[in-house]
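Margin note from the TA: students keep mixing up input and output lines. Inputs are the sequences; the output is the structure of the whole complex. Example:
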Amino acid sequence: MRAQFVFHEVWIGLRRNLTMTIALVVVVAISLSLLGTGMLFVKQVDNSRSYLQGRFQLSVYLCTAVPSSTQCAHNGPATDSQRAQISQTLKSLPQVANVTYIPQARAVKEFKAEFAQDPSLANDTPAADIPDSFELKLKNTQADEGSVAATVDGMPGVDQIVDDSSILNKFYKLVDGARNAVVVIAIILIIAAILLVANTIRLSAFNRRRETSIMRLVGASNFYVQLPFLVEGMIAGVFGWLVASGLLIVVKSLWLDGLQQYFPFNVQLNTADLVEVIVLAMIIGVLLCGTTSFLTLRRYLRV
Amino acid sequence: MIHFENVTKAYPNQGRPALENVDLDVEKGEFVFLVGPSGSGKSTFLRLVLKEERPTDGRIHVAGKDLARLTNWKVPHLRRRIGCVFQDFRLLPNKNVYQNIAFALEVIGKPRRFIRKVVPEVIDLVGLEGKRDRMPDELSGGEQQRVAMARAFVNRPMILLADEPTGNIDPATSIGIMKVLDRINRTGTTVVMATHDAAIVDSMRKRVIELEYGKVVRDQSRGVYGQAY
């Protein structure tokens, strides 16, 4: 095994194919960075989702003097005994982890705080319109939402039951859509990268057909004939990955970290997340280039 | 050394097989001319010996190995025992004489010390003393063919296959080429040379195998090219 010889051949191959090699590096870099961005996005969304889901769950709103449902219109505002009844029912449910009573006064305060930037809305909303409510935390959100809601729904004094996560889900649908678009583009680019690797290697094999035909003639092993091409493909992959890593670091520090200002809680990705994505991108990049080169070579450099 | 037993090679979509029921033996150290018109199967014969092609039928043994039972990954080892020379030299234009010859050893992983020792020896053997740093385009056709022969012989193969080695070379220079082949043959290497060159065959007085339409029509020790040409 003569490493010096192999690397000399690789160098010749890369140099003769310079434009193709550059195109390959660029496409690998872009596809890996898009894929990496998609992965960072997923992590970001997961971070905020787990935070938010731990926080909001079911809200049970009680009837006010201003009825918004037929049941409230019929029964009038919730009475203290109804309130106690509802509270007791909720607390007795085994699926419920925690019940918090939010009296109207507190709800109004929170409402005003949330819309502090829009005082006209806050001021125009009469306090009487804002109901008392129970906020529930469930032990198992997905499974028990329906059954808990059904138990209290229709109880005297209950106006409506709002599943907070269903509101969040709309937001996440949007975010997931954006993420999927990024990943789809990344996959299309990866296909382009695969085709480019195959083409580059084919061109390289064609450029060096004299050398390889002589190598085969004098009895060089397949490994020896193919190795320079394989290394060539992988080096392009590594360069593409290096560029992609740079881009990913930029994406994280300029763009994703910038999202923090829109959230009242910590959604920032830590360095470990970034390193994980970059390492994953390297594995994908090198594997992609190596495998494609290998498969292409099997077609073009037969014994 | 080379043993063909009832070998037939047919290419798909071609009516007549390139070789048909060929039986022949080439012994160790022999010098054999393979003659016959174009398309008579000379090149197919050489390709079969190298296992670049597989016979449609029959058995081939080369250097004691049954080629049918030789796995693909062992084919390179077979080829290390066979040297090849072609009409078009097949030198690497961007390497000089020394590098072209050394390339054959580098790619089979020989140590550099060994290469430094044997390449100059074989340059002397083919008569290219003092030209080791020339590029192929600075050499005459005859000199280029000498480089090709040096490359084929540098690993001391048991068999040297030459496919019309004098095809691109004028008759006077061809004599020099034949002298080198003869010298290589005298080291014990079996030489099989496919050729059209009647003058050379007649002057060498070696064994002649004549092919026509894929069949052996003549196998004569100390033969000549033949009356028909």
